[in-house]
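Please check this protein record:
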Amino acid sequence: MVGPDSWSDIPFEQAFARVNTGGKKLHKSEYAEAGCLPVIDQGQSKVAGFTNRSDLELTPPQDGYVVFGDHTRAVKYCDFPFVAGADGVQILRSHEKHNAKYLYFALSSADIPNTGYNRHFKFLKELVFACPPSVTEEASIADALSDADAAIESLEALIAKKRDIKQATMQQLLTGQARLPGFNSPWRNVKLSSIAELSPGINKPLASMGSGYLYVTVQDIYKGASLSIEGLGRIEITKSEYERFSLKVGDLVMGKSSVKRDGIGYPNLFTGAAEGVVPSGFTYRIRTNSELVDSQFLLQYLRSDPARKWIINNSQASALTNINATIVGSFPIVLPCIDEQEAIAAVLKSMDADLDACINQAANLRLVKQGMMQDLLTGKVRLV
Protein backbone atom coordinates (compact mmCIF):
# COMPACT_ATOMS: atom_id res chain seq x y z
CA MET A 1 0.00 0.00 0.00
CA VAL A 2 1.52 3.32 -1.09
CA GLY A 3 -0.95 5.79 0.51
CA PRO A 4 -2.96 5.84 3.74
CA ASP A 5 -5.36 3.03 4.63
CA SER A 6 -8.31 4.73 2.92
CA TRP A 7 -6.39 4.97 -0.38
CA SER A 8 -6.18 2.28 -3.06
CA ASP A 9 -3.35 0.98 -5.21
CA ILE A 10 -4.54 1.22 -8.83
CA PRO A 11 -2.59 -0.62 -11.57
CA PHE A 12 -1.89 1.36 -14.71
CA GLU A 13 -4.37 -0.53 -16.86
CA GLN A 14 -7.18 0.16 -14.35
CA ALA A 15 -6.32 3.86 -14.34
CA PHE A 16 -5.69 4.51 -18.05
CA ALA A 17 -6.91 3.31 -21.41
CA ARG A 18 -5.09 3.94 -24.67
CA VAL A 19 -6.87 6.10 -27.24
CA ASN A 20 -7.01 4.81 -30.80
CA THR A 21 -6.33 7.85 -32.98
CA GLY A 22 -7.27 6.03 -36.16
CA GLY A 23 -3.98 7.10 -37.75
CA LYS A 24 -4.63 10.80 -37.06
CA LYS A 25 -1.01 11.90 -36.65
CA LEU A 26 1.09 14.58 -38.34
CA HIS A 27 4.62 14.01 -39.63
CA LYS A 28 7.25 16.35 -38.18
CA SER A 29 8.08 17.73 -41.64
CA GLU A 30 4.54 19.17 -41.78
CA TYR A 31 4.75 21.18 -38.54
CA ALA A 32 4.20 24.90 -39.13
CA GLU A 33 5.03 28.00 -37.06
CA ALA A 34 1.38 29.08 -37.10
CA GLY A 35 -1.98 27.41 -37.56
CA CYS A 36 -5.40 26.88 -36.03
CA LEU A 37 -4.37 23.72 -34.12
CA PRO A 38 -1.36 23.04 -31.86
CA VAL A 39 0.75 19.95 -32.49
CA ILE A 40 1.54 17.85 -29.42
CA ASP A 41 4.36 15.36 -29.86
CA GLN A 42 6.81 13.50 -27.62
CA GLY A 43 9.30 16.37 -27.38
CA GLN A 44 9.95 18.27 -24.16
CA SER A 45 8.17 21.45 -25.34
CA LYS A 46 4.48 21.59 -24.49
CA VAL A 47 3.59 22.59 -28.06
CA ALA A 48 5.85 21.41 -30.89
CA GLY A 49 4.27 23.43 -33.70
CA PHE A 50 0.99 24.21 -35.41
CA THR A 51 -1.12 23.02 -38.33
CA ASN A 52 -4.34 23.73 -40.20
CA ARG A 53 -5.02 20.01 -40.74
CA SER A 54 -8.45 19.96 -39.10
CA ASP A 55 -8.97 16.42 -40.46
CA LEU A 56 -6.38 15.24 -37.90
CA GLU A 57 -7.95 17.06 -34.95
CA LEU A 58 -8.33 15.18 -31.66
CA THR A 59 -10.82 16.53 -29.12
CA PRO A 60 -10.22 15.38 -25.53
CA PRO A 61 -13.07 14.61 -23.12
CA GLN A 62 -13.92 17.21 -20.49
CA ASP A 63 -11.18 16.11 -18.08
CA GLY A 64 -8.54 15.88 -20.83
CA TYR A 65 -6.04 13.42 -22.28
CA VAL A 66 -2.60 12.47 -21.02
CA VAL A 67 0.07 12.31 -23.73
CA PHE A 68 3.11 10.07 -23.17
CA GLY A 69 6.30 10.16 -25.26
CA ASP A 70 7.18 6.54 -25.89
CA HIS A 71 10.83 7.33 -26.70
CA THR A 72 11.34 10.43 -24.53
CA ARG A 73 9.22 9.59 -21.44
CA ALA A 74 7.80 13.13 -21.61
CA VAL A 75 4.33 13.42 -20.02
CA LYS A 76 1.84 16.14 -21.00
CA TYR A 77 -1.75 17.03 -20.18
CA CYS A 78 -4.12 18.28 -22.91
CA ASP A 79 -7.67 19.50 -22.35
CA PHE A 80 -7.89 21.35 -25.67
CA PRO A 81 -8.22 20.23 -29.32
CA PHE A 82 -4.85 19.31 -30.85
CA VAL A 83 -3.11 17.25 -33.51
CA ALA A 84 -0.76 14.45 -32.44
CA GLY A 85 2.79 14.21 -33.77
CA ALA A 86 3.52 11.07 -35.74
CA ASP A 87 6.40 9.48 -33.84
CA GLY A 88 6.21 7.90 -30.40
CA VAL A 89 3.03 9.58 -29.15
CA GLN A 90 0.80 7.52 -26.87
CA ILE A 91 -2.54 9.15 -25.97
CA LEU A 92 -4.22 8.06 -22.77
CA ARG A 93 -7.61 8.72 -21.21
CA SER A 94 -8.57 8.08 -17.61
CA HIS A 95 -11.17 5.54 -16.59
CA GLU A 96 -14.39 7.09 -15.32
CA LYS A 97 -13.57 6.48 -11.66
CA HIS A 98 -10.46 8.66 -11.82
CA ASN A 99 -9.48 12.24 -12.62
CA ALA A 100 -7.24 12.50 -15.70
CA LYS A 101 -5.22 15.43 -14.40
CA TYR A 102 -4.55 13.68 -11.10
CA LEU A 103 -3.29 10.67 -13.05
CA TYR A 104 -1.18 13.01 -15.21
CA PHE A 105 0.63 14.27 -12.10
CA ALA A 106 0.94 10.72 -10.76
CA LEU A 107 2.44 9.52 -14.05
CA SER A 108 4.76 12.58 -14.18
CA SER A 109 6.18 11.63 -10.77
CA ALA A 110 6.62 7.92 -11.63
CA ASP A 111 10.13 6.47 -11.86
CA ILE A 112 10.28 5.22 -15.48
CA PRO A 113 13.65 3.67 -16.48
CA ASN A 114 15.56 5.49 -19.21
CA THR A 115 16.65 3.02 -21.90
CA GLY A 116 17.66 5.65 -24.47
CA TYR A 117 15.74 6.10 -27.70
CA ASN A 118 13.73 2.92 -27.19
CA ARG A 119 10.06 2.47 -26.43
CA HIS A 120 9.10 2.86 -22.78
CA PHE A 121 5.36 2.18 -22.77
CA LYS A 122 6.00 -1.35 -21.51
CA PHE A 123 7.25 0.15 -18.23
CA LEU A 124 3.98 2.03 -17.77
CA LYS A 125 2.10 -1.24 -17.63
CA GLU A 126 4.05 -2.13 -14.48
CA LEU A 127 3.11 1.08 -12.62
CA VAL A 128 0.75 1.26 -9.66
CA PHE A 129 -0.76 4.59 -8.58
CA ALA A 130 -1.87 5.55 -5.09
CA CYS A 131 -5.36 7.02 -5.40
CA PRO A 132 -7.56 8.70 -2.76
CA PRO A 133 -11.01 7.30 -1.98
CA SER A 134 -12.91 9.73 -4.21
CA VAL A 135 -12.49 11.36 -7.60
CA THR A 136 -13.36 14.64 -5.85
CA GLU A 137 -10.20 14.41 -3.75
CA GLU A 138 -8.22 13.52 -6.87
CA ALA A 139 -9.57 16.66 -8.54
CA SER A 140 -8.67 18.81 -5.50
CA ILE A 141 -5.09 17.51 -5.55
CA ALA A 142 -4.86 18.11 -9.29
CA ASP A 143 -6.13 21.68 -8.82
CA ALA A 144 -3.52 22.41 -6.13
CA LEU A 145 -0.69 21.10 -8.31
CA SER A 146 -2.11 22.94 -11.33
CA ASP A 147 -1.94 26.19 -9.35
CA ALA A 148 1.74 25.50 -8.67
CA ASP A 149 2.30 24.83 -12.39
CA ALA A 150 0.52 28.08 -13.28
CA ALA A 151 2.80 30.04 -10.93
CA ILE A 152 5.88 28.43 -12.48
CA GLU A 153 4.66 29.04 -16.04
CA SER A 154 3.89 32.68 -15.21
CA LEU A 155 7.41 33.14 -13.85
CA GLU A 156 8.94 31.39 -16.88
CA ALA A 157 7.02 33.75 -19.16
CA LEU A 158 8.38 36.70 -17.16
CA ILE A 159 11.91 35.29 -17.46
CA ALA A 160 11.52 34.96 -21.24
CA LYS A 161 10.25 38.55 -21.43
CA LYS A 162 13.14 39.84 -19.33
CA ARG A 163 15.62 37.95 -21.54
CA ASP A 164 14.11 39.57 -24.64
CA ILE A 165 14.29 43.01 -23.03
CA LYS A 166 17.92 42.37 -22.01
CA GLN A 167 18.87 41.36 -25.56
CA ALA A 168 17.13 44.43 -26.99
CA THR A 169 18.90 46.66 -24.46
CA MET A 170 22.25 45.06 -25.32
CA GLN A 171 21.61 45.67 -29.01
CA GLN A 172 20.95 49.35 -28.29
CA LEU A 173 23.70 50.07 -25.76
CA LEU A 174 26.52 47.89 -27.13
CA THR A 175 26.26 49.37 -30.61
CA GLY A 176 25.81 53.02 -29.67
CA GLN A 177 22.29 53.13 -31.14
CA ALA A 178 21.22 54.46 -27.74
CA ARG A 179 23.51 56.45 -25.45
CA LEU A 180 23.34 56.82 -21.70
CA PRO A 181 22.93 60.36 -20.37
CA GLY A 182 26.17 62.35 -20.17
CA PHE A 183 28.06 60.48 -22.89
CA ASN A 184 28.60 61.79 -26.41
CA SER A 185 32.23 61.05 -27.32
CA PRO A 186 32.80 59.01 -30.50
CA TRP A 187 33.32 55.25 -30.43
CA ARG A 188 36.26 53.52 -32.13
CA ASN A 189 36.64 50.26 -34.03
CA VAL A 190 39.14 47.78 -32.55
CA LYS A 191 39.93 44.09 -32.67
CA LEU A 192 39.76 41.94 -29.55
CA SER A 193 43.51 41.18 -29.76
CA SER A 194 44.32 44.91 -29.47
CA ILE A 195 42.58 45.27 -26.09
CA ALA A 196 43.13 41.84 -24.52
CA GLU A 197 45.63 38.99 -24.41
CA LEU A 198 44.31 35.56 -25.46
CA SER A 199 45.98 32.40 -24.24
CA PRO A 200 44.88 28.74 -24.06
CA GLY A 201 44.41 26.98 -20.73
CA ILE A 202 46.39 23.97 -19.56
CA ASN A 203 45.45 20.49 -20.72
CA LYS A 204 46.18 17.96 -17.99
CA PRO A 205 44.10 15.20 -16.35
CA LEU A 206 42.09 15.94 -13.24
CA ALA A 207 43.61 15.03 -9.88
CA SER A 208 42.05 11.92 -8.35
CA MET A 209 42.34 12.69 -4.63
CA GLY A 210 40.92 16.23 -4.52
CA SER A 211 44.30 17.93 -4.17
CA GLY A 212 45.90 20.54 -6.41
CA TYR A 213 44.51 23.69 -8.00
CA LEU A 214 40.89 24.32 -8.93
CA TYR A 215 40.21 23.66 -12.61
CA VAL A 216 37.65 25.45 -14.85
CA THR A 217 36.18 23.37 -17.69
CA VAL A 218 33.97 24.41 -20.61
CA GLN A 219 30.93 23.11 -18.70
CA ASP A 220 31.77 25.30 -15.69
CA ILE A 221 31.57 28.44 -17.86
CA TYR A 222 27.80 28.01 -18.29
CA LYS A 223 26.93 27.65 -14.60
CA GLY A 224 26.17 31.26 -13.67
CA ALA A 225 26.49 34.97 -14.33
CA SER A 226 30.13 34.76 -13.18
CA LEU A 227 32.49 31.86 -12.60
CA SER A 228 31.78 30.04 -9.35
CA ILE A 229 34.29 27.76 -7.66
CA GLU A 230 31.48 25.49 -6.40
CA GLY A 231 31.75 22.04 -7.93
CA LEU A 232 35.07 22.66 -9.70
CA GLY A 233 37.45 19.75 -10.14
CA ARG A 234 41.13 19.93 -9.28
CA ILE A 235 44.34 19.48 -11.24
CA GLU A 236 47.90 18.62 -10.22
CA ILE A 237 50.37 21.06 -11.82
CA THR A 238 53.68 22.63 -10.86
CA LYS A 239 54.02 26.08 -9.31
CA SER A 240 55.56 27.44 -12.51
CA GLU A 241 52.64 26.04 -14.56
CA TYR A 242 50.20 27.64 -12.14
CA GLU A 243 51.94 31.02 -12.42
CA ARG A 244 51.73 30.78 -16.22
CA PHE A 245 48.09 29.66 -16.53
CA SER A 246 46.30 30.93 -13.41
CA LEU A 247 43.34 33.30 -13.48
CA LYS A 248 43.30 36.81 -12.05
CA VAL A 249 40.26 38.85 -11.04
CA GLY A 250 38.80 40.38 -14.21
CA ASP A 251 39.96 37.60 -16.55
CA LEU A 252 37.39 36.12 -18.93
CA VAL A 253 37.31 32.42 -19.77
CA MET A 254 35.86 31.43 -23.16
CA GLY A 255 34.98 27.99 -24.51
CA LYS A 256 37.49 26.97 -27.18
CA SER A 257 36.19 23.51 -28.10
CA SER A 258 32.78 21.88 -27.81
CA VAL A 259 30.90 18.87 -29.14
CA LYS A 260 28.01 21.23 -29.98
CA ARG A 261 28.64 24.13 -32.33
CA ASP A 262 26.49 26.55 -30.33
CA GLY A 263 28.66 25.86 -27.26
CA ILE A 264 31.68 27.54 -28.82
CA GLY A 265 32.96 30.90 -27.65
CA TYR A 266 30.67 31.52 -24.67
CA PRO A 267 32.51 33.61 -22.05
CA ASN A 268 32.34 34.00 -18.30
CA LEU A 269 34.07 36.32 -15.85
CA PHE A 270 36.41 35.33 -13.03
CA THR A 271 35.63 37.46 -9.99
CA GLY A 272 38.11 35.83 -7.64
CA ALA A 273 38.56 32.91 -5.23
CA ALA A 274 40.37 32.23 -1.98
CA GLU A 275 42.65 29.74 -3.74
CA GLY A 276 44.29 29.28 -7.12
CA VAL A 277 42.20 28.56 -10.22
CA VAL A 278 43.39 27.56 -13.70
CA PRO A 279 41.39 27.15 -16.97
CA SER A 280 41.37 23.91 -18.97
CA GLY A 281 42.98 23.42 -22.35
CA PHE A 282 39.55 23.52 -23.98
CA THR A 283 39.19 27.20 -23.03
CA TYR A 284 40.86 30.53 -23.69
CA ARG A 285 41.88 32.95 -20.98
CA ILE A 286 41.16 36.52 -22.04
CA ARG A 287 43.14 39.04 -19.97
CA THR A 288 42.01 42.58 -20.70
CA ASN A 289 44.00 45.81 -20.72
CA SER A 290 42.12 47.59 -17.92
CA GLU A 291 43.07 51.01 -19.29
CA LEU A 292 41.30 50.25 -22.58
CA VAL A 293 38.39 47.97 -21.76
CA ASP A 294 36.18 47.13 -18.79
CA SER A 295 35.93 43.37 -18.19
CA GLN A 296 32.20 43.50 -17.44
CA PHE A 297 31.59 45.46 -20.65
CA LEU A 298 33.59 42.95 -22.69
CA LEU A 299 31.70 40.07 -21.05
CA GLN A 300 28.36 41.60 -22.09
CA TYR A 301 29.68 42.38 -25.57
CA LEU A 302 30.85 38.81 -26.16
CA ARG A 303 27.54 37.43 -24.85
CA SER A 304 25.43 39.54 -27.22
CA ASP A 305 23.60 37.78 -30.04
CA PRO A 306 25.69 39.36 -32.87
CA ALA A 307 28.94 38.35 -31.14
CA ARG A 308 27.72 34.79 -30.51
CA LYS A 309 26.66 34.43 -34.16
CA TRP A 310 29.99 35.82 -35.41
CA ILE A 311 32.03 33.42 -33.29
CA ILE A 312 29.88 30.39 -34.13
CA ASN A 313 29.98 31.20 -37.86
CA ASN A 314 33.78 31.48 -37.73
CA SER A 315 34.34 28.25 -35.82
CA GLN A 316 35.69 25.10 -37.43
CA ALA A 317 33.52 21.97 -37.35
CA SER A 318 35.17 18.56 -36.89
CA ALA A 319 34.83 15.82 -34.28
CA LEU A 320 35.06 18.74 -31.85
CA THR A 321 34.02 22.20 -32.99
CA ASN A 322 36.86 24.65 -32.39
CA ILE A 323 37.56 28.36 -32.62
CA ASN A 324 41.24 29.31 -32.87
CA ALA A 325 42.89 32.20 -31.10
CA THR A 326 43.72 34.12 -34.28
CA ILE A 327 40.06 34.17 -35.31
CA VAL A 328 38.88 35.11 -31.82
CA GLY A 329 41.51 37.84 -31.73
CA SER A 330 40.19 39.29 -35.00
CA PHE A 331 36.70 39.73 -33.53
CA PRO A 332 35.62 43.34 -34.28
CA ILE A 333 34.44 45.56 -31.42
CA VAL A 334 33.09 49.09 -31.44
CA LEU A 335 34.43 50.59 -28.22
CA PRO A 336 33.30 53.67 -26.27
CA CYS A 337 35.47 55.40 -23.69
CA ILE A 338 36.19 53.48 -20.48
CA ASP A 339 33.71 55.54 -18.40
CA GLU A 340 30.87 54.81 -20.82
CA GLN A 341 31.84 51.12 -20.89
CA GLU A 342 31.55 50.96 -17.10
CA ALA A 343 28.18 52.73 -17.15
CA ILE A 344 26.80 50.38 -19.83
CA ALA A 345 28.15 47.33 -17.98
CA ALA A 346 26.48 48.50 -14.75
CA VAL A 347 23.07 48.75 -16.48
CA LEU A 348 23.37 45.31 -18.05
CA LYS A 349 24.76 43.74 -14.87
CA SER A 350 21.75 45.08 -12.95
CA MET A 351 19.44 43.48 -15.52
CA ASP A 352 21.36 40.20 -15.12
CA ALA A 353 20.87 40.32 -11.34
CA ASP A 354 17.13 40.88 -11.78
CA LEU A 355 16.94 38.00 -14.27
CA ASP A 356 18.96 35.70 -12.01
CA ALA A 357 16.61 36.47 -9.11
CA CYS A 358 13.63 35.38 -11.23
CA ILE A 359 15.45 32.24 -12.36
CA ASN A 360 16.26 31.34 -8.74
CA GLN A 361 12.65 32.00 -7.75
CA ALA A 362 11.45 29.65 -10.51
CA ALA A 363 13.90 26.99 -9.36
CA ASN A 364 12.62 27.32 -5.79
CA LEU A 365 9.01 27.06 -6.99
CA ARG A 366 9.86 23.84 -8.82
CA LEU A 367 11.30 22.44 -5.59
CA VAL A 368 8.15 23.47 -3.73
CA LYS A 369 6.02 21.75 -6.35
CA GLN A 370 8.13 18.59 -6.08
CA GLY A 371 7.52 18.59 -2.34
CA MET A 372 3.79 19.10 -2.90
CA MET A 373 3.71 16.14 -5.29
CA GLN A 374 5.52 13.96 -2.75
CA ASP A 375 3.02 14.91 -0.05
CA LEU A 376 -0.25 15.07 -2.00
CA LEU A 377 0.20 12.10 -4.33
CA THR A 378 0.99 9.77 -1.47
CA GLY A 379 -1.65 10.99 0.98
CA LYS A 380 0.98 12.22 3.42
CA VAL A 381 -0.87 15.55 3.34
CA ARG A 382 -4.64 15.55 2.79
CA LEU A 383 -6.62 18.47 1.37
CA VAL A 384 -9.77 19.51 3.20
Summary: Residues 134-181+336-384 form a domain with the Helix Hairpins fold (CATH 1.10.287.1120).
